[in-house]
Amino acid sequence: MRIQDLSSYNAVRQAGLDKLLPQKPRIAVGMGTCGTGNGAEGVFHAFADEIGQRGLDVQLARVGCFGFCAQEPLVNVWLPGRPLVVLRRVQPNDVPRILDDLYLGRITESLALCKIEEWDHLTGQIHYGRGYPDIPLWNEIPFFRGQKKIVLRNCGLIAADDIEEYIAVGGYQSLYKVLIDGTPDAAIEQIKAAKLRGRGGAGYPTGLKWEALRKAKEEPKYLICNADEGDPGAYMNRNEIESDPHSLLEGMIIGGYLTGAHEGIIYVRAEYPLAVHRLSRAIEQAKQYGVLGENILGRGFNFNISLVEGAGAFVCGEETALIASLEGHAGRPRPRPPFPAQKGLYGKPTNINNVETWYNIAPIIAKGAAWFNETGSSKSPGTKVFSLVGKVNNTGLIEMPLGTPLKTFVYDVGGGGINGRQIKAVQTGGPSGGCIPQDMFDTPVDYETLAKLGSIMGSGGMVVMDEDNCMVDVARYFIEFTHSESCGKCVPCRVGLDKALKILNAFTDGKGTEADLDSLDELGRMIRDMSLCGLGQTAPNPVLTTMRHFRHEFEDHIRANRCRAGVCENLALSPCENSCPLHMNIPRFLQLYKEDRLEEAFESVVMDNPLPASTGRVCQHPCEDRCRRTNLDSAINIRDVHRYIADSIYASDRYPAMIERILARKLAPTGKKVGIVGAGPAGLACAFYLSLLGHEATIYDSNAAAGGMLRYALPEYRLPEHVLDKEIELIERLGVKFVFNTTVGRDLSLDELEAQYDAVFLAMGTWKEASARLPGIELRGVMPALGFLEAVSKGEKVNLGKRVAVIGGGNSAIDSARTALRMGAEVTVIYRRERKDMPAIKEEVEAAEAEGANFVYLAAPHRIVGTTDGRVKAIEVVKTRLGEFDTSGRRKPVPTEEIQVFKCDTVILAIGERVDDALPRASGLKLTDSGTIAADRYTLQTSRPKVYAGGDVISGAANVVNAMGYGKKAARLIDQHLMEDKRIAKLSRKWEYDQTPPASPSKEPRQLPGQLDPLERVKSFAEVTTGLTALQVLHEAERCLRCDVKANGD
Amino acid sequence: MPLHKVSIRIDGEYVEAREGQTILEVARAAGKYIPTLCYLAGVSPSGACRLCVVEVSGVGRLLPSCTTAVQDGMSVTTNSEKLARYRRMVLEFLLTERNHYCSVCVSNGHCELQSMAAKLGVTHVRYPYTYPALPVDVSHPRFVLDHNRCILCTRCVRVCDEVEGAHVWDIASRGIRSMLVSELNKPWGESKSCTSCGKCVQACPTGALAEKGWAVEEMTKSHENISRLAVKRGVRV
User: Fold this and answer.
1) Fewer CB within 10 A of the end CB, N or C, for chain B?
2) In 3-state terms, what secondary structure has residue A780?
3) Which residues of A make CB contacts under 8 Å with B?
4) Number of domains within chain A
5) Is A233 in the same domain as A307?
């Protein structure tokens, strides 16, 4: 039916409305490429079959995509007079259930994502109805909250291949309006006033471009739609076309009328077959209905649109290359000026706009420039569609007002990191963009701000990266992409990118040099400044921004051959090994155990980690957080396996023989002497390896026994003293000397140590409580957590009273709470954030809960109230609420007016520890701003070259394995310095064990260690966790996926 | 239609120019030196080698002088520390991209790449050589194409297309794998469209296209005649 006047337009509109809001239930399946990829085709056919078999009077439609990719396939279900309900993750076998419910006039609420009561299509409104109080409105769920759908106004709601449904929501009304008004100049003014900017990424004002074309004298004029979307990770144009092709056509026809062009060309990637199909069909329908072709809407305007499929070259997204490609030449750009508006396609005036730009035209015509300016920022009004992908929970296509801060994208809409992982950066703009680090997430996303940070808006790709992404590899990946997509015309892009790629490949292979870094920087700037077209000019952005914001990662690769993310294959054995500060070869001991070689497994473990039983009990286990098995079910219980291996050797008569075996590995004496300050985990690990390397190691400690925090801060029920003693026995047998009850700085100066030894390693830890400003802190009954734990472990008498309040959420808070419980107190832990934000080990928090500790979250201490004689009586806390996200990716607690009072006799402050700066100050060592000892990241040397430092004294209070990692590293570096040779490798032996990964992953779930009953264990300091059984350990060893086995089998 | 006169400044000196002229044309007419490699008077400019980039005040980007038209009041800087460094890098890129062994090249001593390197002070290259394995096409009875010496400037492509009208040459593939091809990647000797006029050889700045029969240092070329011919035939003014 050809629309020639208002009455025929209204007739078509009514026909469309009858389909959109029929007198019967309507089921619409989201069938973009994304939905189809997730099985929407099967769902659609399941509905069709089932509806046919049951003979139901239900309308079934195919719509485009509503944008929430992580929840695909999406299905809209509507009952007359009720809201439209979006069902998520619908599978074919859900179909009978959905139809059963529908028959009863119900919605399958268990599958419901959200409901829509009314929808503003901007060119028209649809009122679906009201009801379903238990289903949230669409903009009440975090993913959609904050989104504003202008471009995506129709996507996922109307049938993509039905022009009548498009007209039902006011489609082609804006076209009608401009044709009837007949004032193209005024309409162009409106586009200019709307300050609409090119959505392809460069942001040039669309109105100005159109005006230039309107003023151009030559004929014919061409309009081109650039649908050659080629950025990895960007798919907004595809979805727009697949879901709502008529909006694009309408935008172009309006553009044709306003600029005086009569021919439009859509240049669309051939890799988008569904988009091509839907567009062709839309063009056909538009002609049939008289909105395209001759005498459009009976107003005498002629405009044709043809479709050209691009052959898949990224550079053809550049407008001059695109024109060359349309003309039948190879897709290579030419210098501008002349700009296409002067000399474009076939030398004629041409205007090129990105797909998304065209989608904004009809709404601006319909609602006006002032309305458009209400959204977004003053310089960049309106919205932009982004594809939010990568390491966030909610991936999908989102339309956000321009100027929205990046953190809203990542944390609010995206729902933060997967499995609570820390997000590191966001890459915007695809291969032409850059990486924005997490501490800059306050950045508003608009053209200017992103450019200032060295990135670009680009087409709107937004790739979120977490600690599992290596930024060097990210830079390498994008350069590899632009390198292979460079057309080769200009020298800087063609050859420069080749040089840059070679350097980046060397980095990821661990073969880069410092000079390469400077060279890469120079190359990047030169390619950016000298290249002919946008591809080359922006190609270095990923490199330049990652080098600016993540320089330490590049330096890690070069100076320490270290890839912290474990991505660069040549630099990491497996994710577990790579994340372990001690770099334990975890797959090896698991495999050795699996092969029933317990002694060798122990040897492997203890040579990597001299305190395997202790760490097996108390380690923060970063290895398990990175275990790839997490993606399958849950991590291997690595910590409990090496605890078991160590415990079984210690308990058996084989231990003496094992000690001999380790002693046999000792290298010949070197005559070098090293003094170590602090017998904690860092000092012990350092001494262990120094002794093995043949040096004489002497440890000084203020206490009467070795172990440091392991002995004096970790409670007996977590780490029994006899376990630690057993492990220290081996270190003593290696020849390490201990000087106890001696405080360096008081009994002995650093100068004296330096004179006596060839090198000194400082590993005193953080024993000083962080200062707190809290009224009432001077009252009797207020104590620091560390002091409390130390006193208990030394058997000193501590009077807690009946009720104890613990302030803090770290491990020492939980240790204090559980210790206090064992001393018969009632315990309340007060933490200012939420439970999930607690830095303490998760299992410890669970254990404390089971043992009966009370937890009060979102509460900050305000004042400690005392009795008249100066004893603690109560603590007042201010309730907090969650504010904005801070740089740690957690919501900032903001104090409220609400105050709560908890009666208590003791307050334990577990709010952090710091370095005791008496020794460093007395000996003139440089300190950092945060009060730790300043030491070189790579050499661990302090401002006194013979003096090294490691562990908490340089990192700030952390954990046992972090300290041990430093100790091990210090031993390697000190040895390297003293012997001028890299000798640490001489300590390792050849291992032979099976190098075949399991054919299929073991079905066993993660094995949990036995624990004493909470109600029983809280009565004593007996060890709570009894460990795994032999069979459980075997299960765990078999669960390992063997990420260490490389494809080439080395 | 007489073209408007405009006045621009080049390196501080006022120079008169006609509207529509490029910065390069005006600079050369005024006796200013701007290095070029892919530019060839008489055929359309390509803007590919980037040696001729200049700084124009008020414009953030560097602009190729061979394709950028003058505008009244423009102020152009043809040389600066940055431009000199970038131009040297372009030459370093070209010298390492393929196998430029001057000592065994027919064009040694008469090579524009070589003389440009000497002129711009490229005494050594700081990038690793690529050493690609590239063929030599000796199928043509009179001429030879040595890909090892080709810098992909496309002077041959343009001269053959625009002056001779044969369009024998074009560039196949893309990026670092770009290759000069005759016809649809057939040996040159089998080309039906080649008129064997030899203009491409004369246009070639290096030893990539040469006449057969010459030994090291013996191949001399003259592209001035091509430019003169092109201008005479009205290909481009």
Assistant:
1) N
2) strand
3) 313, 315, 330, 332, 334-335, 337, 483-492, 494-499, 502, 519, 522-523, 526, 529-532, 537
4) 7
5) yes
pLDDT at A168: 96
Same-domain pairing of A189 and A255: yes
Structure tokens at A805: 């309040």
Determine, yes or no, domain membership for A999.
no
pLDDT score, position B227: 80
Interface test with B, best of A479, A530, A531 (most B CBs within 10 A): A530
Tokens of B98: 């393929």
CATH number for position A895: 3.50.50.60
ipTM: 0.96
Set out the domains of chain B in order of their start, with CATH numbers. Answer: 5-79 (3.10.20.740), 101-231 (3.30.70.20)
Chain A neighbors of B61, CB-CB under 8 A: 529, 537
Name the token pair of A703: 């206490």
Residue of B nearest to A525 (CA): B86
Planar angle of CA A257, A259, A260, nearest 5 degrees = 65
Contact B94 A483 (CB under 8 A): no
Q: Using the beta-carbon criterion (under 8 Å), do B96 and A485 form an inter-chain contact?
A: no
Q: Cα–Cα distance between A246 and A305 in angstroms, integer? A: 12
Contacts of A485 in chain B (CB under 8 A): 174-175
Asked whether residue A177 falls in the same domain as residue A243, the answer is yes
Determine, yes or no, domain membership for A802: yes
Answer yes or no: do A335 and B171 touch at CB < 8 A: no
B58-117: per-residue pLDDT in tens?
998 999 999 999 999 999 999 999 999 999 999 999 999 999 999 999 999 999 999 999
Question: Do A490 and B171 make contact, defined as CB atoms within 8 angstroms?
Answer: no
Q: Which of B67, B82, B176 sits opposite A335 (nearest CB)?
A: B67
| A1049 within a domain of the structure (yes/no) | no
Task: Decide if A517 contacts A553 (C-beta within 8 A).
Answer: no
Chain B residues whose C-beta is within 8 A of a chain A C-beta are 45-50, 53, 61-62, 64, 67-69, 82, 85-86, 89-90, 93-94, 96-97, 126-128, 130, 151-152, 170-171, 173-178
pLDDT digits (tens, 9 = 90+) for A40-64: 999 999 999 999 999 999 999 999 9
Q: CA-CA distance, A521 to A497, in Å (whole number)?
A: 12
Region A886-900: mean pLDDT is 85
Q: Is A494 within 8 Å of B178 when comparing Cβ atoms?
A: yes
Residue with the two structure tokens 């950016």: A528
In terms of domains, do A49 and A118 share one?
A: yes
Domain that holds residue A295: 172-373
The yes-or-no verdict on residue A1049 having pLDDT over 50 is no
**A923 and A904, same domain (yes or no):** no
Q: Do A490 and B68 touch (CB under 8 A)?
A: no
Tally C-beta pairs within 8 A across A and B: 101
pLDDT at A885 > cutoff 90 = no
Contacts 24+ apart (CB under 8 A), A876-885: A876/A900, A876/A901, A877/A830, A877/A901, A877/A902, A880/A832, A880/A833, A882/A833, A882/A834, A882/A858, A884/A407, A885/A407, A885/A411, A885/A441
Q: What is the DSSP string of A191-260?
A: HHHTT-B-TTTT--BHHHHHHHHHH--SS--EEEEEE----TT--HHHHHHHH-HHHHHHHHHHHHHHHT
Of A334, A502, A529, the CB nearest to B62: A529
- Report yes or no: A162 and A31 within 8 Å, Cβ to Cβ: no
Residue B148, classed as helix, strand or coil, is: helix
Q: What is the pLDDT of residues A348-385, one digit of tens each?
A: 999 999 999 999 999 999 999 999 999 999 999 999 99
Half-sphere exposure of residue A45: CA atoms within 13 angstroms, side-chain side? 4
